[in-house]
Amino acid sequence: MSKVLVFCPTYRHNAETLYAVNGLAHDGVCDFFFSRDNPHRGAEATKNILHQFKKAQALAAEYDYILTIEDDMMPPADGLTKLRAAMDDTGAGAVYGVYHFRRPSPAPSVMDKRTGEAITPRQWKKAFSEQAVIECGGMGYGFTLFRADLFRSVTLRTQNGSGADSDTHLSADLRKAGVKQLAHFGVLCGHKMPDGAALWPSEERDAPRVAGKMERKLVSVRALSSVSVKQPSGGFAPILQGDTGEVESELAEVLAGAGIVAYA
């Protein structure tokens, strides 16, 4: 039976991510490491990424796979299952769910395996329409499955010491080492923005879909008597309790986009 450690290098107790993680389907052992041990503050807060990563590496020997998820990501419920299947089928060292970087303006996250630059709009559109699994030059920690032995062995490096760019350098190092990296366009992830809206990949590389502000809509979810996530393997996992009410349509659309079915 396979064992997965779900690890968050940027944990800030973001509710949407916790709900999505709670609904991840997996047919083996699945443990979670979400630590609020962040010793670095202020301008040096991004150094906590390196701090958390090293803690997860120390735990990795007990697992077959390490799944990283950043604390502003909303993956689909079958995301882990699909990433693992692609890894097992191809022998890849890292398989990425697809999302958009936020940056000053939204940017595609899938890098070309030869150049390390973003794949072309044509490549993106074809992969998106086919929900394809394509070889790539890396991405980020957003929703990424690593082979545990590879995860343990990598050395994170950063250009300015902050840790915020360590994912870029890790992708480049894996590419230079000849490690196969895959982008899974059947695993589309929402990326929450500071204003509460979420970016979702669309057919056009440079035009992600923007869903409504989730923090405002969560008030309606808390009015439900029961909200659960339905997992592809069957069964429901409760994520909220409250009084009776209705789900607002915009939130229902966002949850559906994340592979979550809300019901009362």
Describe the structure.
The chain has 2 domains: 3-211, Spore Coat Polysaccharide Biosynthesis Protein SpsA, Chain A, CATH 3.90.550; 214-257, no CATH class. It is 29% helix and 24% strand. It has 8 helices and 15 strands. The protein has helices at 15-22, 47-59, 79-90, 121-130, 148-153, 166-176, 214-221, 249-257, and strands spanning 3-7, 29-33, 65-69, 73-74, 94-98, 100-101, 107-108, 133-136, 143-147, 181-188, 190-192, 198-200, 209-211, 226-230, 236-241. The strands form 4 sheets. It has a 7-stranded mixed beta sheet, with helices on both faces. It has a 4-stranded antiparallel beta sheet with strand order 4-11-12-13. Strands 6-7 form a two-stranded antiparallel ribbon.
Short summary:
With 264 residues, the chain is an alpha+beta fold. 29% of the residues lie in helices and 24% in strands.
> In total, how many beta strands?
15
Q: How many domains? A: 2
Strand content: 15-25%
Name of the CATH architecture of the largest domain: Alpha-Beta Complex
Q: What is the tally of helical segments?
A: 8
Task: Give the low-confidence spans.
Answer: 214-251
Order of helices and strands: EHEHEEHEEEHEEHHEEEEHEEH
Instruction: Give the fraction of residues assigned to helices.
Output: 25-40%
Mean pLDDT: 78
What structural class do the secondary elements suggest? alpha+beta
Q: Profile the largest sheet.
A: 7 strands, mixed
Return the CATH class of the largest domain.
Alpha Beta
- N-to-C terminal Cα separation, in Å? 34 Å
- Rg value: 18 Å
Give the CATH topology of the largest domain: Spore Coat Polysaccharide Biosynthesis Protein SpsA, Chain A
Q: For the largest beta sheet, what order do the strands appear in spatially? A: 2-1-3-9-5-10-8
Shape: globular
